[in-house]
Amino acid sequence: MVASSSHVHALLVLVLVALAALYVLWRVFRVERGENAPSQAAAGGEVVYLPLPRKITNVSVEEAVLRRRSIREYTKDPVRLEHLAMMLWAACGVTEPKWGLKASPSAGATYPLKVYVVVGEGRVLLEGGGYLRAGVYKYDEYKHLLSLVKPGDLRRELAAAALGQEWVEEAPVDLVVCAIFGRTTSRYGERGRVRYVPMEVGHLGQNVYLMATALGYGAVVVGAFHDDMVQAAIGAGREEVPMYIIPIGVPREPPRSSFEDLWKYIEERRRG
């Protein structure tokens, strides 16, 4: 009878340990996918619900690829909020609601990238008129909203952190892509740091390029900057490592490539 009681006790302990492990895994799963996470609104005091993702362009993928260029000169025209929403969605928004999968591929669906948005004064036009408040916002891809992190036009500080690259200050909007390496390295080790996360940053950047092109904007990816100064400018967490700054605006000279011009280029080289 004593042995039987010991076995029951051991079994109960194992069950409790298993339940505790499952609970921890469940919590990690929810945090990785942005569920039940603390809202940035408590710190910044403002949340902006973005227009929902939808088809709004008539530009084909082929045309967007053809016209994609790195654009560093912009007009004074603002970025429309509904267009900014689509560029953020293309960057890392949810595209598969059952599992919360995103627009940019990620090794093991670890999703280490977070996007901050630096908005200039009077530079993002709201749907009902007026402008989005200048400041630094953080994109919540699961709720498709922006949370204010820091008020004020921080483009000059961001440009200073980017070695004085003037297009960072002149663009109406700058996206700042940060990586939380631990999300990927915890599963894949050092390969996550040197291979997978940098690949994912490139995937995200190209998605932004193509959506910006389809919407009539220009973008350029910037990698030259002081990490600590960028973190300070946007109010990023210590574990969020800046990887890209992406200025976005209406191009002063839109790209005008055509497939006909491309055909001539290819045919000339075939003859040569």
Characterise the protein shown here:
- It is a single chain.
- This protein has helices at 2-32, 41-44, 61-67, 81-92, 155-161, 166-170, 182-188, 190-214, 227-234, 259-271; strands spanning 47-49, 79-80, 94-96, 101-102, 113-119, 124-125, 135-140, 145-151, 173-179, 218-219, 241-249.
- It is built from ten helices and eleven strands.
- The strands form three sheets. It has a seven-stranded antiparallel sheet. The protein has a two-stranded parallel ribbon with strand order 2-6. It has a two-stranded antiparallel sheet with strand order 3-4.
- The chain is globular and about 85 Å long.
- Helix 3 (61-67) packs across helix 8 (190-214), helix 5 packs antiparallel against helix 9 (227-234) and helix 7 packs across helix 8.
- It has 272 residues and is an alpha+beta fold.
- It has two domains: 1-32; 43-271, NADH Oxidase (3-Layer(aba) Sandwich), CATH 3.40.109.10.
Low-confidence stretches: 23-44
CATH topology of the largest domain: NADH Oxidase
Question: For the largest beta sheet, what order do the strands appear in spatially?
Answer: 1-8-7-5-9-11-10
* SS strand fraction: 15-25%
**Reported CATH architecture of the largest domain:** 3-Layer(aba) Sandwich
**On the 0-100 scale, what is the average pLDDT?**
89
Shape descriptor: globular
End-to-end gap: 93 Å
* Helix count from the secondary structure assignment: 10
CATH superfamily placement of the largest domain: NADH Oxidase
Helix content: 40-55%
Radius of gyration: 22 Å
Number of strands: 11
